[in-house]
Amino acid sequence: MKIQFMTICSAALIFGACTSKLAPVADNAVKPSVVTEQVPNDTDDPAIWVNPNDSTQVMVIGTDKHEKTGGLYAFDMDGKIINKVTPLDRPNNVDIAYGMNVGGKIQDIAVLTERGTNMIRVFSLPDLKPLDNGGIPVFEGETERSPMGIALYTQKDSTGNKIFAVVGRKTAGPDNYLFQYELFEDAGQVKGKKVRAFGKFQGGKEIEAIVVDNELGYIYYSDEGFGIHKYYADPSKGNEELALFGQKDFKSDHEGIALYKSSDSTGYIVISNQQNNSFNIYPREGAQGKPHQHDRVAEVPVSAIECDGADALSLPIGTKFSKGMLVAMSNGRVFHYYDWQIFQDSISKK
């Protein structure tokens, strides 16, 4: 069965960095099928891994964002913690890529930003063993570093998978906010080289949530408080901004982004309307004859509070998630697993 995965909403703040007044959960909010065990400090961003050789094996990984004592946690489908990497120094967002050749072994990887060290970290899946010799420095030579958002782009060619990390930071100027790094193997370790700087930034807040559509070749990222930007994922296609959308659909912050892939070319872009405790949903393929026009098709209230990171999967998972699921960070040091069928029903009613 072909694996479809997606990434990205990111950073809920339960110890003092959120908005000062939380919106109440709506009476008609979608309830999660599973709530994970709590992490010690502050959940931020999840990603979903599916075993390419056995699609019944699914694992959710998520960051616990805290200085010095943060970590990367792995959860089973019942929300139980089954593995962890600790300590990490303020890990922020995480994403997953499949099929990287590392030391002669085809390896799935999880890559996260570690703000406290100005690095990205690379771990094997599913065992979460380090593959990066302590980390890959990012934004070297820049006045502002502090990596936050990350999404992975996989480019397939005759030699195998070429994997890129698209990395955002806490703050920067109005242009070239994002750096793109090609990940490569050297003597059994993963390293990175910068291949591109791009991306507009309004400057009001920050850019944290990023997602890559591998099949269609696009990058989307949340410019908090402003809108969603769209660019090509392939560095050779240039730095033209393809779309800016969702500017009037959010209460305040545009946050975590996930892709729900109905097929290789259709599905939904799902974005956390953070201060409204809801998700805005847009057509992945755009409007008829206008692939870069993304108009909202639904807004779905959820029980997750101040969701900062999310991921989605269209693969059926047991009886709880027959159409796949959405995983969302929530205040309370947890992640929520939602049945996608409920979201699909909301879209169909529109």
Task: Please give a structural write-up.
- This protein is an all-beta fold and 350 residues long.
- It is 3% helix and 47% strand.
- It has one domain: TolB, C-terminal domain (Neuraminidase).
- The strands form six sheets. The chain has a four-stranded antiparallel beta sheet with strand order 1-24-23-22. Strands 2-3-4-5 form a four-stranded antiparallel beta sheet, with no helix packed on it. Strands 6-7-8-9 form a four-stranded antiparallel beta sheet, with no helix packed on it.
- Strand 6 (91-102) and strand 7 (105-114) form a beta hairpin.
- The longest helix has 10 residues, at 340-349.
- The radius of gyration is 18 Å and the shape is globular.
- The two termini are 31 Å apart.
- This is BPP domain-containing protein.
SSE layout and pairing:
Layout: E1 34-35, E2 43-50, E3 58-64, E4 70-75, E5 81-88, E6 91-102, E7 105-114, E8 119-125, E9 136-137, E10 147-157, E11 160-169, E12 178-186, E13 189-198, E14 207-213, E15 218-223, E16 227-232, E17 243-245, E18 254-261, E19 267-273, E20 278-283, E21 298-301, E22 310-313, E23 325-330, E24 334-339, H1 340-349
Antiparallel strand pairs: 1-24, 2-3, 3-4, 4-5, 6-7, 7-8, 8-9, 10-11, 11-12, 12-13, 14-15, 15-16, 16-17, 18-19, 19-20, 20-21, 22-23, 23-24
